[in-house]
Design goal:
By secondary structure, the chain is of the alpha+beta class. About 30% of the residues lie in helices and about 30% in strands. It is built from five helices and eight strands; from the N terminus they run βααβββαβαββαβ. The longest helix is centred in the N-terminal third of the chain and has 15 residues. The chain is globular.
Length: about 200
């Protein structure tokens, strides 16, 4: 029977060693010690999707201090199960599990800054995956450590936020998460003139 399980530290550590190290390049991996520290502080939540005791997929989120929003940090399906709907199934079921009251933001590398047609296609496919599973593409982007990201949003049922509210929420989230780098190495921006207090 398939179910979502909130990961304890031992589970997360095991997934980090066995999967995150393999699924994400070194420059996209935070140290496990950072994930452990944030989990202990209530700022990080991780989930596994299991069929009985077999891991199918996992997701890790950074949580804002007020509990209103989350930022998807890692999302992956076990390699041999990719392309068979497991990721979609997991992502749709996560909405009811996530502790963030208003929903989650997702970073997806912008196709606009891809260096090849193959990379454009890969980035568009990733964005399409999230859109087809209930995410919306916000008009906010973020230049984060030199990489240009489109920001998507998956809201909780019954939560309806305006474009301006989403933009301000993204700014607040990044300001909190990347406090020492905000404005220098972390620059949320938008094409139109949304103003936030």
């Amino acid at each position: 029977m398939k179910q979502i399980k909130k990961l304890q530290q031992d589970d997360l550590k095991q997934i980090y060693k066995a999967h995150i190290r393999e699924d994400f390049p070194r420059n996209e991996r935070r140290p496990y010690s950072s994930m452990e520290k944030m989990t202990n502080e209530g700022k990080y939540a991780s989930y596994g999707y299991y069929d009985d005791n077999r891991l199918l997929a996992y997701a890790c989120y950074i949580l804002t201090e007020d509990g209103m929003y989350a930022l998807l940090d890692y999302f992956a399906v076990i390699p041999e199960l990719r392309g068979h709907g497991t990721g979609s199934e997991f992502l749709q079921k996560l909405e009811g599990t996530l502790p963030a009251k208003n929903g989650a933001f997702i970073e997806a590398e912008s196709p606009d800054t891809a260096k090849s047609d193959e990379e454009v296609a890969f980035r568009q496919k990733r964005i399409h995956f999230y859109l087809s599973n209930g995410a919306v593409l916000t008009n906010t982007k973020c230049l984060l450590f030199g990489v240009d990201y489109n920001i998507l949003y998956i809201g909780r049922s019954g939560i309806n936020l305006s474009v301006g509210q989403l933009h301000c929420a993204v700014q607040d989230l990044y300001r909190e998460i990347y406090r020492p780098f905000y404005g220098r190495l972390c620059k949320p921006y938008v094409s139109n003139e949304n103003q936030c207090p």
